[in-house]
Amino acid sequence: MEHMSLLERVVRGVLIALIVLFFLFPIFWIFLMSFQTNEDILRIPPSLSFTPTLSNYSALITGKLVSTAGTLDIAFMRNLWNSVLLSTVSVVIALILGVPAAYAFARFKFRLGEDIAFTLLSFRFAPPLLVLLPLSLYFQKLGLTDTYIGLIWVYQLIALPLILWIVRGYFEDLSPDIEYAYRVAGHSWWRTFTRIAIPLAGPGIAAAGLLAFIFCWNNFIFALILASAAKQPVTVGALAFVTASGIQYGQIAAAIVLSVAPTLALALYAQRYLVEGLSLGAVKG
Amino acid sequence: MTDAAVKHADARPRRRINYLPYLLSLPALLVCIGILIPFVTAIYYSLQRYRLNLPMMRGFIWFQNYVEFFTDREFWHTVQVSLEYTVLTVGVELVFGLGIAMLLQKRTRINNLVSILLLLPLMTAPAIAALMWKLMTNPNFGVLSYLLQLLGFNDFKWASDPSTALFTVVLVDVWVYTPFIMILLLAGLRSLPTQPFEAAALDGVPRRFVFFRITLPMLTPYIITAGLFRMLDSIQQFDIIYPMTQGGPGDTLLVFQVRAYLEFYQYTNVGKSAALLIILWAITYALSNVFIKQWLKLRERARGMA
Fold it and tell me: Which residue from B210, B228, B216 is spatially nearest to B188, judged by alpha carbons?
């Protein structure tokens, strides 16, 4: 293994280059498109030399799309804001609800404990439409259709199971001895939990929160069914935008870049946590 | 956790019922329980003749919605497309994921950088990824359409042609999810004990033999876990197919969830839509039980090796 022949090195290098090309080219190309005018985009053959323009982004940010057919209002910035709001609040609530539950499942053997944990996990795997379609009829009756509260509630289905199972694994890896010692020293259960257990499981909680945020951000189907234009996140908003603007390809590309930039930046920034969370607890960090 | 710690924890006397764990897990459960109600409702709907546009016709028909599926060619088409999609995506992703993981196995600076960069497709929302590929395969200006023309494929219509639509969505799925399998298998590869490989190298065992007799068997639990996890998602595919083609052209890509969605919103046939989803749920439930068992076994192993 140590001594690779020259041929093998070359083959490996070429293969890795091809892999990087396949997985990064789409992102790179859309990024370039977002700085092109429609004329540049429609030119055949496609070219890498063009004068970059910020007009696509400014159209999205000001919300006014001026074209030959007239002015079109775009609410894309609103979609972006909705995504930030929905994902952030959902994850914060899921952490408040999920971390104590994860601790309970990790530290206490209690009746129905495993059943409850599995019920929560099974939500992760059920077909989302099975729940969403009847729920949309209920939400109409309850007046929760197209409200942030309704959406955030349903987003718990994405965030809670994830946080619960990742954080539970982390608590189980911590030896309870430190907590016992702290309690023997006369501290309350609550103090032990907040001062000892949570800080020690910090990396796990961060990984789970990060992953939950990205999954909430990337979710498409929940908001497609339960939200109208004013409350839609970017995933649904971008699709609506494609339908509405039709041929404004530069703006579509810019909208795509703005939609994926936050999750991609987070992924690069915190990739170590992410890999740990993604490997389903199958490896030790 | 050491054995002594486990014994110590178990030996603690617990005489009265401890309410604390219930108190801690109850809020999370309550939030999710509201979601169980729609699930029961879906079962109830699936046993009814229930169309939103014909409320007068609503009535209890027991299993008629299900029985009708047996002779419904559209239903079997949905089953077939969903299975094809699942087998193709999971198969291709496992092969690619394993190949890439083995290429990147050594911890060099370049390999680490590449494995980080490959996270990016995985972090892209699948619905947005579908739009990206839609732009790149646009017949007028799409860069991929152009490149294929250079290679002599003049009428390759990607997602808008029934003969290539499945290929196109599978390609997008492979682009998004191969990195997931790669990450899991790379973690698995790097956690394997090194002795068998060193021994094999010392004895001059051929590489192919090492791969099939040592690497593959030792990696199998990881491969099964990753494959099952992807299957669970793939059989429920919606996020890529719906933005890309809305299940078209025609009925080419009407997988379970896309058909159920159209059945509900386009044909307002709530009963049939619910029955379709219950069948999908039964499939995923069976799969998820197998998956969870595999996953817990793997976690135990990872703990044991630490």
Answer: B216
